[in-house]
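Annotators were shown the component list below and the corresponding predicted structure, then asked to write short factual statements about the assembly.
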Amino acid sequence: MAALLGRSCRKLGFLSSGHGARRSVSTETGKSLNLYSAINQALHIALDSDPRSFVFGEDVGFGGVFRCTTGLAERFGKNRVFNTPLCEQGIVGFGIGLAAMGNRAIVEIQFADYIYPAFDQIVNEAAKFRYRSGNQFNCGGLTIRAPYGAVGHGGHYHSQSPEAFFCHVPGIKVVIPRSPREAKGLLLSCIRDPNPVVFFEPKWLYRQAVEEVPEHDYMIPLSEAEVIREGNDITLVGWGAQLTIMEQACLEAEKEGISCELIDLKTLLPWDKETVEASVKKTGRLLISHEAPITGGFGAEISATILERCFLKLEAPVSRICGLDTPFPLVFEPFYMPTKNKILDAIKTTVNY
Amino acid sequence: MAISRLSSRSNTFLKPAITALHSPIRRHVSTDTSPITIETAVPFTSHLCESPSRSVETSSEEILAFFRDMARMRRMEIAADSLYKAKLIRGFCHLYDGQEALAVGMEAAITKKDAIITSYRDHCTFIGRGGKLVDAFSELMGRKTGCSHGKGGSMHFYKKDASFYGGHGIVGAQIPLGCGLAFAQKYKKDEAVTFVLYGDGAANQGQLFEALNIAALWDLPAILVCENNHYGMGTATWRSAKSPAYFKRGDYVPGLKVDGMDALAVKQACKFAKEHALKNGPIILEMDTYRYHGHSMSDPGSTYRTRDEISGVRQVRDPIERVRKLLLSHDIATEKELKDMEKEIRKEVDDAVAQAKESPVPDSSELFTNMYVKDCGVESFGADRKDLKVTLP
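Structure shown to annotators:
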């Protein structure tokens, strides 16, 4: 229950993406859209701009269980937008084959929790295809989209964050958007990127996050992190839905005189080390937060790399506020989640180290 | 409707008149165990094996028990529907109403030593295995007294003492698991079998075919039951399967197609399958059934099928109505007696719900229990390893 109340703060509309010279779309206006509509727009544009692109997965024909694929089958036909039977391994393998023939295969896995039967295909086939064929073949046209993350009552199999498993596979890219505007630009970049990409969409934000999204075709570059809030005392790094929680913690910390710098990683593999390094060299402190369990989570990789690069500049140990080391629980979700208060607590501890 | 042929023995008291309602010498709501033979409405279709006979041996007591158990299951699912809408049950809730005949028919043919494993539509299977209503409702509401101590929820009911292995979220994953159970049974020479239930959606998972091959290769006593309710979530079988004849998809594994809305046909098929599996190895049973609710409580169930279709099935094939007609036409009970029974069951379910509502939520320390076995000394860390740190019990 508490998780619901905590999360309801998101209903206040998405907190605006801050200053930063990199993003030219930041000041553009557009239509007010939620996350699933933004993704839907991106898919419409992708299919429109490339006649050799396909969207398929379980139940995508009628629009999908989260409505991300609404209208695609009607507009582009059942030969390009179609349903598959219930077989994730088959779906991804099929997508790899389609991509190997030079097409853009945009595969939907209904929930990230169901991606594991396809894990072998992604790790052993997709990630290594170009490498082992000496660049004769590749499946760069493959993009796998999956909703991930907690939703308040999802339980064991509708709430998982499996990004860490995929970040361990050289040969693919892992991208996670934080908002509707970001999602559209990032998804178009992923689809057009000449490498296989796994795109995790924070399902909590499908309806909750609303933002102005430009209507035209635009792409946001991959492997570029963004400083969405500037500060001097501590650097916070996160991705996806967790950023809203972190932003709330930053606001509260500001009331206590702590100036926080918040970075959206966007692309987890390969991640933008330079931006994070520059930030930590400025602030001297780092806090990473993600929903996935703490042990072996992607925060560990960020922590180790930053330690290597910024050891002498660090004023305090790197802090990780993450999910607990348990299966994603049912009734215990509020205890499991890395909440605003846990993050705020850690910010204060780190600053006062 | 079943054409009945009453065995002569059981009717020495009554005159052949069916108007026993008016006769002064009335039978009580029957607990007669003398055999009755009833013919199933729909014949069996078989693949690579003989069909069992359409004449099912049963008794008044058994048919009455079918009625009672199915009415109880139906009532439970409807109560779960209201509880979900009242937000007392959270998460995902997949209801089984319409498919009750499968659960009761199967139980009638097997013992508690035979194992059952299914996916997430498991409330009625749990009750069939002897689970208590209050345990089911507690688990649905995430309370400590639930059958999985409140940690599993709707999709994860288990009952070890009745060999009910649950309750699985990922469809198809329970199939190789079930074949493993069958292997253990064969190894221990238990003379028991495993019923592995899966749906028409899961029938397209690669794991099924891997498991079938292994089961057939090693002659495992595994009975794979495809609960074909014609829709995998919102996708009709003709859209997802090249061959919707699921009982034939085992290729080299024999199969049987059964009217899953007829509890007696289900009983006959399961009995036949058990004998087959113990002697010859795996067999597939395709149960032709139907669910009235949508895939889950988030699915209205009417966007991919018409309301006419749903009400049509309810009128013509409803398993409880079928058994009610049997009971009435064979004079085993009167309408009033059956209605009284349903009233009692309703009260039973309401009492169980009330009792479950009173039970406490599990303690927060339960978040960390049952991950590993004792004495691993593994620590579970919370945020930043400072405040929340527990050594797993």
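Statements collected:
1. Chain B touches chain A at residues 90-92, 142, 150-153, 155-156, 169-172, 201-202, 204-207, 232-235, 239-241, 303-304, 361-362, 364, 366-368, 371, 380-384, 386-388 (CB under 8 Å).
2. Chain B is about 35% helix and 15% strand.
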